[in-house]
């Protein structure tokens, strides 16, 4: 099927990522604290916000806009590349498999939420709220998977603490996706009005050929 959108699809990725990064710096008190390594999380908040927002928005792109049978697989390949880059640059005690598995968990649940919640026309009015609350839980589950892989004991109040922290990130992502979706649709409708599809020629009425032959 031919893609009905154009270059405006870059908004679907850029806008949520930018909003997430700016929002993350705001709630952490500036770029210094936002980018500082957090030993309890194994990363900085900057890494978490950047990777999570990119994965969710790319999954949104192939779920609703850029529909190809290879789209979801392309996201998985990019996930592997992200994990390789993180393993090479961050190092520390976290290995490649520790990056990959939580990312794949996030990808799988994100695909389900995007397809059946965010882009569900029946939930259009409440999609940002429902998706935000659900995505925060998915992010918390992904981190719990990381803890399991590392054999790290879960401290008291883990679920509530991390769910609250990830709720900010999920709200930023979902707000950015909602805003981007409105912009993409608006641009598409405007282009459609400026360049309407060619009208199909009207079919000839039966009997026209016989009348023409009679006149000859």
Compile the SSE list and pairings.
Layout lengths: L9 H19 L2 H5 L1 E2 L4 E2 H21 L5 H19 L6 H23 L8 H24 L7 H37 L13 H8 L1
Antiparallel strand pairs: 1-2
Helix pairs in contact: 1-3, 1-7, 3-4, 3-5, 3-7, 4-5, 5-6, 6-7
Strand order, largest beta sheet: 1-2
Give helix and strand order, one letter per element, not per position.
HHEEHHHHHH
Shape: globular
The N- to C-terminal Cα distance equals 46 Å
Number of strands: 2
The amount of beta strand, in percent, is: under 5%
Mean pLDDT figure: 84
Describe, in plain words, how this protein is organized in 3D.
- With 216 residues, this protein is an all-alpha fold.
- It has one domain.
- It contains 8 helices and 2 strands, in the order ααββαααααα.
- It has a two-stranded antiparallel sheet.
- It starts with 9 loop residues before the first helix and ends with a helix.
- The model is unreliable at 199-203 (pLDDT under 50).
């Amino acid at each position: 099927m031919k893609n009905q959108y154009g270059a405006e699809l870059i908004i679907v990725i850029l806008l949520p990522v930018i909003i997430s990064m700016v929002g993350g710096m705001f709630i952490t008190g500036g770029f210094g604290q936002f980018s500082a390594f957090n030993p309890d999380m194994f990363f900085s908040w900057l890494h978490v916000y950047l990777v999570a927002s990119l994965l969710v928005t790319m999954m949104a792109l192939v779920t609703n806009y850029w529909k190809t049978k290879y789209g979801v697989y392309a996201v998985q390949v990019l996930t592997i590349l992200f994990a390789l880059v993180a393993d090479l640059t961050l190092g520390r005690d976290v290995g490649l498999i520790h990056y990959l598995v939580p990312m794949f968990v996030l990808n799988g649940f994100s695909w389900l939420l995007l397809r059946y919640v965010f882009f569900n026309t029946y939930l259009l009015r409440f999609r940002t709220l429902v998706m935000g609350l659900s995505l925060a839980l998915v992010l918390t589950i992904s981190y719990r998977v990381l803890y399991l892989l590392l054999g790290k004991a879960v401290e008291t109040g883990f679920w509530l603490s991390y769910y609250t922290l990830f709720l900010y990130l999920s709200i930023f992502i979902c707000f950015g996706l909602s805003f981007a979706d409105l912009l993409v649709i608006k641009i598409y409708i405007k282009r459609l009005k400026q360049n309407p599809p060619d009208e199909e020629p009207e079919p000839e009425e039966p009997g026209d050929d016989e009348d023409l032959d009679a006149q000859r």
